[in-house]
Amino acid sequence: MLYILFGNQSLMINNRLTKLVKERLETVDAFNYVRFDGRETLIQDIIYECTLIPLGYERKAVVVDNAYFLTKGGDKEKLDKEQDYKCLIAYLKTPNEQSDLFLCVENPTIDDKSEIVKIIKQNGTIFELADISKDNWPEYVRRYFEKLETKIDADAVTELVIRVQGDANTFVSEANKLALYTNHVRLEDVLLFIERPLEENAFAISNALIKGKNDVALSIFRDLLVQNEEPVRLISLLSNQFRLMSEALYLYSLGLSNNSIATQLGVNEYRVKLAVDARRSISYEKLLLYLDKLYKLDYNIKSGQMDRFYAFEMFIADF
């Protein structure tokens, strides 16, 4: 059998792959299960493996990770000039009935016009493994902790979802870490053990500055320095926050509701609410002024006129 497995989340691909392999093979070991990296292995070597008869077994599985040749455009790997795609196409038309070939690629789409994809559509099976939707994440988290026989509070679920930012691999790693620590995960456990994403830290810095809590903003920045975060990245993210706030305030001044603004800007309505509430502390004109200051700060740092750490600290202190 021929299979293509693709999607954004490697965890979803591997889960489906594991299930399929178990269905196809009675036992799995080094003699009937072979795995290649498509970026490092020639296609002709993979096909040669597919043609070999499994010793002592009725069937074998050949898995190709990073099958980049299934995707549209993009940069080809260094190996591409040496790849024998005609060999692959010929094999796909008459595959070894004792071998299952699994082509896996972590990408949201594959090239439907590719001859390889067309042949597998006719002779095999294609699995598109969708991401966990934003609305389904809380339920996914709760069910995963149930499997770990660990209780998790509702506010801890919400915070954990925010901190893993839709990355299933990161979630599994962090969830297992929390379950090892306690059998009842509370919000304080998530805050203690799971790092806040850089974007969330930038949001926290901007929120603190708007509220006049420069000391809080400075404390967050210094914590990030311990994690080797670059001020230039923070300047970019902070600019994005101020730009979002200025756009939200402008649309609010036109009479749009928070929900309409959120839809138009493609952001969470809670972010819009905070931006609109911030009008009591900072004006639309002041936001534009600080956006200009961030632009100049970025230029001065990149042109070598200012030390990046000192310059960013001074921006926070003088806000």
Describe the fold and architecture:
The chain is α/β, with parallel strands linked by helices and 319 residues long. It has three domains: 127 residues, 3-Layer(aba) Sandwich (Rossmann fold); 60 residues, Helicase, Ruva Protein, domain 3 (Orthogonal Bundle); 120 residues, Zinc Finger, Delta Prime, domain 3 (Up-down Bundle), CATH 1.20.272. 56% of the residues lie in helices and 10% in strands. It contains 15 helices and seven strands. Helix 2 links the parallel strand 2 and strand 3. It is elongated. The model has no long low-confidence stretch (mean pLDDT 88).
Low-confidence stretches: none
Q: Radius of gyration, rounded?
A: 26 Å
CATH hierarchy: architecture of the largest domain: 3-Layer(aba) Sandwich
User: Would you tell me the structural class of the helices and strands?
Assistant: alpha/beta
Total count of helical runs of at least 4 residues: 15
CATH topology of the largest domain: Rossmann fold
The first-to-last residue Cα distance is 63 Å
- For the record, the CATH class of the largest domain is Alpha Beta
Order of helices and strands: EHEHEHEHEHEHHEHHHHHHHH
For the biggest sheet, the summary is: 5 strands, parallel
The CATH superfamily of the largest domain appears as: P-loop containing nucleotide triphosphate hydrolases
Number of strands: 7
Shape: elongated
Helix content: 55-70%
- What is the residue-mean pLDDT, rounded to a whole number? 88
Give the strand content: 5-15%
Number of domains: 3
* Sheet with most strands: strand arrangement: 2-3-4-1-5
